[in-house]
Amino acid sequence: MTWVLPQELTDYIIESFWDDPRTLRSCALTCRAWLFTNNSHLAAYHASRKEIRSVADLDLLSRRLSRRESRRFHRNVVELQVHEGRKGGFAHTIPFRVSGAFLPNLERLSFVSVGQTVRRVLHWHYSVSKHVGLYRRVSRLRFDHCRLPSLETLRRIVFSLPSLQSLSLNHANTEFLPSCTHSAIEDAAILRQHPKVVELQILRCTFNRPSGLRHLLQWFRPDVAGKLVFGIEMVVLSRRDIRLLRLSVWQLIAQDTQRILHGLKTRIDRLPNSIRVLLDWNAGVKRLRCSCDIRKV
Question: What domain of life does the UniProt record list for this protein's source (predicted)?
Fold first, then answer.
């Protein structure tokens, strides 16, 4: 007579080895009845996309990476998404607890709903950018519905990623203000060290001041000490200063939008044929819809 342990007891035993993939594999090969429960745990180690939606998820991933025997199972992770949601206040600790040294193939990093649930936007310590720099292969950085304390915080994060090629800001109800802690000369020195960002997307972002957008786009210009103009003119309309291969801007809300629109309307005929601009505006709403594709400039 074959004696079989109750499924509840089997699950309880296997659950105690959730952070030991070698033991889980041995259990899966030992008994067919143990296979299903083991596979559910082993699948988490081989997933190429990781999501952190709570402090518990962060603790789980951090504990798995802290075990030397389980680190090699996370080498195939290519995408990490941090979703604070209603339980915010932990996004700035991600670089410390999930070190980029343990995720060598990570290529896409996303932050969703960061700082939306707290009354006061948390200050990100300057050392965060230093640890973000360990994500050496991250080429795409995305912020969706996020509130960061300042442009300076975003600037440090952007320039700490050595392989960054794409930056996307989607529906950022920003606290962004023009930074006064760095000079144009300092920015130019950083740009010479930073690889060329070839794609920038600004989707439904609100800037408290027109100069907020100016400072944001300023980071991607090769000559930041030159004459500055408002809004997207400096990237799209000034052919000498074009550094981006692609620029997409939708529903940009900013003060003094009329000046940006007037500049686009009066200079649109001067654009080279390699730049295609689709423009639609509503003066009453002060909302700009623009899509540009820059090739072979």
Answer: Eukaryota
Q: Which domain holds residue 107?
A: 48-294
Q: pTM for the full model? A: 0.65
- Cα separation of 218 and 221, whole Å? 5
**Token output for 117:** 């649930």
For residue 196, the model assigns a pLDDT of 54
Residue 196 Cα to chain centre, angstroms: 17
The closest of 149, 155, 290 to 231, measured between CA atoms, is: 290
Laid out side by side, the sheet with 79-83 consists of 49-52, 79-83, 108-112, 140-144, 166-170, 199-203, 246-253, 287-294, 275-282
At 251, which amino acid appears?
A: Q
Alpha-carbon Rg for the chain in angstroms: 24
Structural domain total, the chain: 2
Whose tokens are 């900013």? That residue is 254
Residue 151, classed as helix, strand or coil, is helix
Q: Tell me: do 35 and 146 sit in the same domain.
A: no
User: Which pLDDT score is estimated for 117?
Assistant: 64
Residue pair 172/206 in contact (Cβ under 8 Å)? The answer is yes
User: Locate tokens 């003066």: which residue?
Assistant: 283
Residue 216, amino acid: L
Q: 166 and 34, same structural domain?
A: no
CA-nearest of 259, 257, 190 to 225 is: 190
Q: How far apart are CA 70 and CA 18, in angstroms?
A: 11
Residue 286: per-residue pLDDT: 35
